[in-house]
Automatic annotation (TrEMBL):
It is found in: Cell membrane. This is histidine kinase. The keyword Repressor does not apply. It comes from Bifidobacterium bohemicum DSM 22767. The keyword Nucleus does not apply.
C-alpha cells in the first residue's frame, strides 16, 4: 500500500472510531452498593440545563428568529459548497482518468520525441506527463518523461519501490504524493511553483510491449504514466474560495432581509403588546389594530378584539349591576324605612295616648295604620325576594304548556273588575308599513278575537307579568280610558339570544319588526308570540320610557302609594320575560297618546 492509500485508510479509521489504544469515549460503570454518582452527575447537570434554558427564554423572539435564519443559511450554504466541491472534484478526477486512458497509447508511442523536446515548449500539454518503464518484475528500466516546472523545479510521483508493485493494480488509476527536487544551479522557485510541484499525482499502470531493433523480439513492460493534479486542486480551491465568498454574501444579505421581514412581521405583535399594556393600565376601550384575517396575526387580532369587546361589555355590565345594586339597596332601604317609620310612629302615639280619654278609638286607628304599613312592607319584601330569585335564575320553570290567549282573556276580566267603566278591546296584531322606506313599520291593532297561541314557559310567572301590566294600567290611567289587548304569532329572522340582549327601547322593537319582514321574504325564522297592552292615559315621555323597568321607578308616586304600588312590578315583568329569553319594551300609543307595552316571547324554549 502506498502512502496515499495508507493516509486514506488512517483517516477512514479515525472517522470510524477505530483509533488504536484510545480509550472509549463513554464507559458504562455499574454503581456499587450505596453509590449514586450517576444520579449526582445528572443532578449537577440540571442546574446548567435550567440556566441555559432560562437564558434562551430571555432572548427576544426577533433575535431568536434572526439567529435561526442565519444558522439555516450557514448550514445551507456550507452544505451546497461542500456538495459542489465534491461533485466537481469527482468529475475532474473522472475526466483525468479518462484522459490518462485515452492519451496513454499516444504518449507511449511518442515518448522518444517528447523526451527530446524542451519542457518549456508547448505541445498540447504532453510535456506535463510523467512516464516510467519497468520490466515484468517491476524493476525500473528508465524514466523517459519527467516534467520540469519553472525555475527548474522537478516534480515526480512517489511510485512503488523498484521490484515491487506495492498493491498497485494494472489499469486502475491511483493517487500518490509528489516528490520535489530542483535541478542543480537553479534559482529559487516562487510560492506558486512550489505549490504546483507539491500537488499529488494521478498515475495509471499499464502493460506495454517493446519490440527489438529487428522488430521480432517483443519485451513486456509495465508502464507508469501520470499527470499532476495541481491544476485540478487549484481549480477546486478557487471554486471553494468563490463559494465561501458567495456564501458570506448570502448569509449577510439573508440576515439583513430576514431581520427586516421578521421585524415587519412581528410589528403587529409589538402593537398588540402596547395595546395590552394600555388595557392592563385600565383602558378597556383599546383594541388591537386589525390585520387580514387570513394571516395568523390577523386571526389573533380578531380573536383578541372579540375577547376584549366581551371583557369590556362584561365589565360595563358589572359596573352597571353594581350601580343598580347600590341604587337598589338605597331605594329598598328608603321604601322599607317609610312603613317602618309609620309602624314605629303609631306605636309610640298609641303608647302616649293609651291613658287619655278616647284611647280605644285612637288605638283602632293606630292599629289600622300599622296593619296597612306592615302589609305594604310585606308586599315589598315579597317583590324583592321574587327579583332576587329571578336574578339568580331560580324560581322559574320553562317546561310548562301555556295558553297565552287564555291568560290575556283572564287579564281583561280582571281589568273589567277593577274598572267597570273602562272599554277594553281584544284583537290581533299586524304590521303597518310606512310610505317612507327609511321609516320602519309598526305594530297595528286589529279588532277581533284573540288568536290561540300556545308556548312553553312558566304559567304562574307569565300571569304575574300580565297582572303587573294590568295593575299599572289601573293605577296610572283614568278608569274610563279605553285599552286594546292584541296577540299574534310571528316569525322573525333573529335568535332569542340576540332578542334577549336588546335594550327595552322602541328602536329594538323596530329591529324585531325588520326581522319579521326578512323572515317573510326568506320563509325562514323563529316563531314568537307577540302581545301588546295599549292604553290611552297620560303616557310617559319618550326619554323616560326605558326607566319604567328600573326598580322602584314610579311615574306618579302619590297614585302608586294610594293604590298599593311598590315600583317593582315592571322590573319583575322584565326579569320574567328575559328569563323566558324574550323582550319587553314601552312605546307611545299612536292614536290618542298613552303608553303601549309590547312583550315578545319565543314559542319554544331554548335547548
Amino acid at each position: 500500500m502506498n502512502r496515499s492509500e495508507q493516509a486514506q485508510s488512517e483517516a477512514s479509521d479515525r472517522l470510524s472510531g477505530k483509533t488504536h489504544g484510545a480509550p472509549e469515549a463513554y464507559v458504562r460503570v455499574s454503581p456499587s452498593h450505596g453509590d449514586d454518582s450517576s444520579t449526582k452527575d445528572v443532578r449537577r447537570s440540571n442546574p446548567w440545563k435550567r440556566q441555559l434554558l432560562a437564558g434562551l427564554d430571555a432572548v427576544p423572539l426577533t433575535t431568536k428568529l434572526v439567529a435561526c435564519t442565519i444558522v439555516l443559511l450557514m448550514i445551507g450554504t456550507v452544505g451546497i459548497s461542500l456538495t459542489i466541491r465534491q461533485l466537481v472534484g469527482d468529475y475532474l478526477l473522472d475526466r483525468m482518468d479518462e484522459q490518462l486512458r485515452d492519451q496513454a497509447p499516444l504518449v507511449y508511442s511518442n515518448v522518444d520525441y517528447l523526451s527530446s523536446r524542451d519542457n518549456s515548449e508547448a505541445n498540447i500539454g504532453f510535456n506535463d506527463y510523467f512516464m516510467q518503464f519497468r520490466d515484468v518484475d517491476n524493476h525500473i528500466i528508465s524514466t523517459p518523461l519527467v516534467p520540469v516546472l519553472r525555475n527548474s523545479v522537478v516534480s515526480e510521483p512517489v511510485l512503488p519501490a523498484s521490484g515491487s508493485m506495492d498493491g498497485v493494480k494494472l489499469g486502475e488509476p491511483f493517487t500518490t504524493t509528489a516528490k520535489v527536487r530542483t535541478v542543480a544551479n537553479a534559482s529559487g522557485a516562487d510560492k506558486r511553483t512550489i505549490e504546483m510541484a507539491n500537488a499529488p499525482w494521478r498515475v495509471l499502470a499499464l502493460e506495454g510491449k517493446e519490440r527489438g531493433p529487428d522488430g521480432t523480439n517483443v519485451t513486456k513492460l509495465i508502464v507508469y504514466i501520470g499527470v499532476s493534479m495541481g491544476d485540478q486542486i487549484d481549480l477546486i480551491q478557487k471554486l471553494t474560495q468563490y463559494s465561501v465568498f458567495v456564501s458570506i454574501i448570502i448569509v449577510v444579505l439573508g440576515a439583513i432581509v430576514a431581520t427586516f421581514i421578521i421585524q415587519r412581521t412581528l410589528l403587529p405583535l409589538k402593537r398588540i403588546e402596547k395595546t395590552a399594556a394600555k388595557i392592563a393600565a385600565g383602558d378597556l376601550s383599546q383594541r388591537v389594530p386589525p390585520a387580514p384575517e387570513n394571516t395568523e396575526v390577523g386571526s389573533l387580532a380578531a380573536s383578541l378584539n372579540s375577547m376584549l369587546a366581551r371583557i369590556e361589555s362584561s365589565f360595563q355590565e358589572q359596573e352597571e349591576t353594581t350601580e343598580k345594586m347600590k341604587r337598589f339597596v338605597s331605594d329598598a332601604s328608603h321604601e322599607l324605612r317609610t312603613p317602618l317609620a309609620t309602624i314605629h310612629g303609631y306605636s309610640e302615639l298609641y303608647t302616649m295616648q293609651r291613658d287619655l280619654p278616647g284611647a280605644l278609638e285612637r288605638a283602632d286607628e293606630s292599629i289600622a295604620h300599622i296593619e296597612a304599613s306592615s302589609s305594604r312592607m310585606t308586599l315589598l319584601v315579597e317583590d324583592l325576594l321574587s327579583l332576587a330569585r329571578l336574578d339568580e335564575g331560580r324560581g322559574i320553570d320553562l317546561t310548562q304548556d301555556v295558553n297565552l290567549d287564555q291568560l290575556l282573556e283572564d287579564a281583561v276580566d280582571d281589568l273589567h273588575a277593577l274598572d267597570p267603566n273602562r272599554m277594553i278591546q281584544q284583537g290581533r296584531l299586524a304590521i303597518a308599513g310606512s310610505e317612507n322606506p327609511k321609516v320602519p313599520g309598526r305594530l297595528m291593532f286589529v279588532d277581533g278575537r284573540l288568536p290561540q297561541v300556545r308556548l312553553k314557559g312558566d304559567i304562574s310567572r307569565l300571569r304575574q307579568v300580565i297582572t303587573n301590566i294590568v295593575g299599572n294600567i289601573h293605577r296610572y290611567t283614568p278608569s274610563d280610558s279605553p285599552v286594546e289587548v292584541g296577540l299574534e304569532k310571528m316569525s322573525a329572522s333573529i335568535s332569542p339570544q340576540s332578542l334577549q340582549r336588546k335594550p327595552a327601547a322602541s328602536q329594538s322593537l323596530h329591529h324585531f319588526l325588520e326581522a319579521v319582514e326578512v323572515a317573510r321574504s326568506t320563509q325562514a325564522g323563529v316563531d314568537y308570540a307577540v302581545f301588546t297592552f295599549i292604553d290611552h292615559g297620560p303616557g310617559v315621555p319618550v326619554e323616560r320610557q326605558s326607566q319604567i323597568f328600573e326598580r322602584f321607578y314610579t311615574a306618579d308616586p302619590s297614585r302608586a302609594r294610594l293604590k298599593g304600588g311598590t315600583g317593582l312590578g315592571m322590573s319583575i315583568a322584565q326579569s320574567v320575560v328575559r328569563a323566558h329569553h324574550g323582550f319587553i319594551a314601552a312605546g307611545t300609543t299612536q292614536e290618542g297618546g298613552g303608553l303601549t307595552l309590547t312583550v315578545i316571547l319565543p314559542i319554544s324554549p331554548l335547548d
